[in-house]
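Quick one:
INPUT:
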């Protein structure tokens, strides 16, 4: 028996919603069906797969079995593949030759729109869709096949990707313009020891780099610090004098140029990393994605300013 002949998208959606809601009744409500109808969908799917996909915990809680979890992962990849196909179909209907979904980590959102505008001008026959998320969400999206291309810093170990370096990615320490350390010719580690650091949340790429930087100065993260989940909140905190922050220089170009934020001439900075363009290796790239990738790698300097664009105050 070919199991694919007996599996439907509706059944897979029911399984995913059971996992998300934790109960069959919750999935039924989300689907606009009755509980018995969803239970029937689940039973038919289990019969087709030949495995138990969920088990009950207590009186009502439902949890996926390992087989069920694997099928939910496959459903996510299938949805992503169909979504990309529909985007390409829509682009073809508009007379374009294809669609490229470009993912970007949140730090790259200050640069990615410029890149999309350049791509639109260079390739009017290709629709470019930009999706911005944090690093963890972006890596998960790569694994689900949601992106044709992706911009981030350090490439992940999984999923496997073709990672092509784009440009330098400098990281600096920033403070309010009236901070005592602002405007100094040099700031040593000892002078930073008593400062409150404003850091990104644990797990973010910037946070990992900040921890390595502070460890290199023998300044552990255990020093006084605040934790923020966005670069915008960090910048506002710095401008309001709450502390100093380790941040991507590309996120503060506007504020530095307008005198709202000062870049400190701190020991060990700027910390240089790279921006990369990633392409998933688990599926062949479309012709449109290949064209866009080659152009991005050859013209990254037009969208990714170097450190010389960052004036010191």
């Amino acid at each position: 028996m070919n199991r694919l002949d007996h599996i439907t998208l509706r059944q897979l959606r029911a399984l995913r919603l059971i996992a998300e809601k934790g109960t069959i009744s919750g999935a039924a409500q989300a689907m606009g069906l009755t509980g018995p109808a969803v239970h029937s969908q689940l039973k038919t799917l289990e019969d087709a797969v030949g495995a138990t996909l969920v088990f009950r915990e207590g009186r009502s809680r439902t949890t996926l079995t390992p087989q069920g979890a694997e099928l939910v992962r496959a459903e996510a990849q299938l949805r992503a593949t169909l979504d990309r196909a529909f985007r390409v179909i829509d682009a073809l209907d508009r007379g374009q030759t294809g669609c490229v979904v470009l993912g970007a980590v949140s730090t790259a959102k200050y640069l990615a729109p410029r890149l999309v505008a350049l791509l639109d001008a260079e390739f009017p026959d290709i629709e470019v869709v930009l999706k911005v998320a944090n690093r963890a969400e972006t890596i998960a999206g790569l694994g689900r096949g949601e992106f044709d291309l992706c911009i981030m810093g350090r490439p992940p170990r999984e999923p496997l990707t073709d990672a092509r370096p784009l440009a330098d990615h400098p990281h600096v320490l920033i403070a309010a313009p009236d901070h005592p350390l602002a405007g100094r010719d040099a700031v040593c580690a000892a002078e930073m020891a008593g400062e409150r650091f404003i850091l990104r949340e644990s797990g973010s790429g910037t946070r990992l780099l900040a921890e390595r930087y502070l460890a290199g100065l023998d300044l552990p993260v255990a020093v006084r610090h605040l934790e923020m989940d966005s670069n915008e909140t960090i910048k506002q905190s710095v401008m309001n004098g709450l502390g100093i922050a380790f941040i991507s220089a590309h996120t503060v170009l506007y504020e530095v140029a307008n005198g709202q934020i000062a870049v400190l001439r701190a020991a060990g900075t700027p910390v240089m990393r790279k921006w990369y363009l990633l392409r998933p290796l688990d599926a062949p790239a479309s012709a449109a994605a290949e064209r866009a990738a080659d152009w991005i790698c050859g013209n990254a300097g037009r969208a990714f300013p170097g450190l010389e664009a960052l004036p010191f105050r």
